Amino acid sequence: MPASRVLDDLLPRRSGPLPRVAVIGAGMSGLALARVLTGAGFGVRVLDKGRGPGGRLSTRRSAEGGTFDHGAQYFTAREPLFRTLVEAWVAEGVVAEWHGRIGTLTRGAVSPAKESERYVGVPGMNAVAKALADGLDVRFGARVERVERDGRAWRLTSETGEDLGLADVVVAAVPAPQAVPLLAGAPALAAQAGSARLSPCWAVMARFEETVAVELDGAFVEDSPLSWVARDTSKPGRAPGERWVLHGSPEYSAAHLEETAEEMAPKLVEAFGKALGRDVRAVEAVAHRWRFAMPSPPLETPALFDPALGLGACGDWCAGPRVEGAFLSGVALARRIAER
Ligand SMILES: Cc1cc2nc3c(=O)[nH]c(=O)nc-3n(C[C@H](O)[C@H](O)[C@H](O)COP(=O)(O)OP(=O)(O)OC[C@H]3O[C@@H](n4cnc5c(N)ncnc54)[C@H](O)[C@@H]3O)c2cc1C
Predict the structure, then answer these.
(1) What does the domain layout of the chain look like in residue ranges?
(2) What is the fold of 3-339?
(3) Residue 270's closest CA among 242, 248, 241?
(4) Residue 60 C-alpha to ligand 1 middle, in angstroms?
């Protein structure tokens, strides 16, 4: 089955007047939800403040023209529906298995990690989001600031005061702290979202002239300000080069959260050298602050929804962390909206 049909055909197609749905956030959860409901015949509009789809499934261009996956590094697929979708994407070349050597790095000492199927988007992680967004009504560059009652519907307004239209059902598919103000019309849901915590992550995109000599392409780092490093160029379909992504640990990232990107890049490159047990010199190193990177821990609910009010929220902080958890949360909320 083509990947596009896996979600489009998930629910029976409805006819007759259906509620208009607005989805705030074009990350994995919002796009999965929008895809399922659009396939079922609902009129769905997605709004995102970014320039393209993906959210934390993100790919950045480097100065020499290559790319970095500076958010999600890879994903696993365990639940049957997600596996079906991922297998269809693999057949279509949107996703490939990453056969990089994964292990643990502790001050120069290397040990292998447990075997696992690890998937990545091709040629970058955001390829998955682009495939999901294809054919949907998505507007970028629109940061929703207010969701307010207007008769029986909800009116969405941007941070610049622009009227973003009316919807009968509004979904905040954004990290929990960003969902809180958007759920003001449903105080019980806002309180639940307000109780979810996401840890931050400083990510550094580093390019090296020489191959970094280590028998690993991805490593969980111990005893270090870093928690993860990956040779981005070892992933399938990437432009050649020696590009690495370095992730600060949640504790270290939180302690240095308000420092500047210029301060953080050299610190984490130095930490990389210490983890390897030798100095390394990057020819390019750019840091990015993810203020809300990973739920810690997620709420134990697939998604939030008030059917009477027509307000809901989904994301990795609901059902389970990570890309697959975000996907499942979006699909779960789509089912609830369709049942409403
Ligand atoms: C550094 C890092 C490493 C990670 N590593 C992995 C990994 O290896 N494997 C894995 O499975 N997962 C990983 N994750 C987690 C994974 O990326 C997330 O679980 C998943 O992508 C979350 O999807 P989402 O739809 O819930 O939210 P997001 O991807 O955050 O999407 C939310 C979207 O909402 C938009 N938005 C926010 N507020 C507004 C607003 N007011 N108006 C309009 N738009 C708005 C944002 O621009 C964004 O596009 C990592 C995350 C980070 C940051």
Answers:
(1) 3-339
(2) FAD/NAD(P)-binding domain (3.50.50)
(3) 248
(4) 14
Q: The dihedral of CA 160, 163, 164, 168: what is its sign?
A: positive
Geometric angle at alpha carbon 14, from 11 and 20, rounded to 5°: 100
55 C-alpha vs ligand 1 centroid, how far in Å?
4
From the CB of 170, is ligand 1 less than 6 Å away? no
For residues 21 and 167, the answer to whether their CB atoms sit within 8 Å is yes
Supply φ then ψ for residue 269, to 5 degrees. Answer: -65, -40
Burial track 95-106 (b if 16+ CB lie within 10 A, e otherwise): bbebebebbebb
Q: Name the token pair of 244.
A: 């690495």
Ligand 1, atom nearest to 322 Cα: 19
Mutate to test the pocket of ligand 1, among 322, 324, 327, 331 (most ligand atoms within 8 A of CB): 322
The CA distances from residue 290 to 1, 56, 116, 329, in Å, are: 36, 8, 26, 21
Please state the atom number of ligand 1 nearest to the C-alpha of residue 32.
25
CA–CA distance, 138 with 23 (Å, rounded to integer): 9
pLDDT, tens digit (0-9, with 9 covering 90-100), for 289-335: 999 999 998 999 999 999 999 999 999 999 889 999 999 999 999 99
Please list the alpha-helical segments (H only) found in 59-201. Answer: 80-92, 126-133, 176-182, 187-194
Query: How far does the centroid of ligand 1 lie from the alpha carbon of residue 72, in Å?
Result: 8
Distance 151 CA to ligand 1 centre (A): 32
Q: How far is Cα 85 from Cα 31, in angstroms, rounded to an integer?
A: 14
Give tens-digit pLDDT for 7-27: 999 999 998 899 999 999 999
Find tokens 């983890």 and name the residue: 275
